[in-house]
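Appendix B. One record, verbatim.
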Amino acid sequence: MPWTFTAWLDDNFPGVPEGESVKEINSTGDSTTGSPQFLLTNQGHVVAWTSQSQAGGGEATPVPLPASMAAGGVLDIADGAYALIEAEAPPALAVTSEAIISGTPQVGKTLTGTPAGFNDATAIVSNQWKADGVAISGATGTTLALTAALQGKSITFESTATRGTDTLASTSGAVGPVTAAPLAATAIPTITGTVQVGKVLTGKPATFNGTATVTNQWKVNGVAITGATGTTITLPASFQGRSVTFVSTATRGSETVVSSSVARGPVAAAAIVRGYPKPPTLTFNVRPTSKKAGRATVVVARATTARPVPTGTIRVTLTKAGSRKVVTGTLSAGRRVVVLPKAGEGHLAGPGLLPGRPVLPAAQARGSTP
């Protein structure tokens, strides 16, 4: 089976710099007195020595190189005594295209950097983002997400080429200062409470990014409620059947953002409370108007603690000697004066009525005329 060459073993040859690899070996041919051997590394360094004759053995004797070759930069060597090809010195590193930045310098946005171009493709190029001239830790890629910490700062993108001991940097033009992110709501307003006439609702204002002035407004069916700019509202009867929202408005400079809660409603009617007021009093006054005629005056007056004010119709009946006289009247502000002309001795009865339930008890009084 034929042998296949894969690589030189660097440690088989004298003088190879540490870390370099063998590219090529040439010699002028063995003789009884030995001949020069030349080794070229992939890194451009040449090592030369004199081999001993095959019969003689012993250590190799170093061969000095021309001064122009001792510094390295050799591209190739050829067979024959001292038949060396000396490389021209590489040109100085130079920028062929500057680093640039594209994108909007605003918090929340992403900038993109295009690395600089250099005149030596073998140079190693690294990149670095900077804020106000200071390197941003870990920012060595070609994109940069702008965070709130970078607000107000100017951003640059720098490419550095390295070739051996030579370095050259190209810095983009600065973009910025980085502006704040657009004003936006981070959480909408919310409403808590029972949506019913007489109940109190509580609004939690929206939250916004950054610093802004926030005002609030309650609305019913989308229309602002006059004076309702606090965080609570008591639902009046006029809101029954309508929907309520709570709106927060943020202002920062020329920016204005409005955020509205989910509508709550429709507002339900107030709960029905089963309770009856204290019955009003029933007062009978029987006064003679003359010796020939008497008059019975009946005053229906509500008690001071009665709620609501008695309404409806009062009926007063005078019974005398088997006959009856009936007089009715409608209560006004809880009162009614009923006059019974020529009232003589008899019985007076006066039940007062409220819608659906009598609240004035039956009463009797005796009156007489002289």
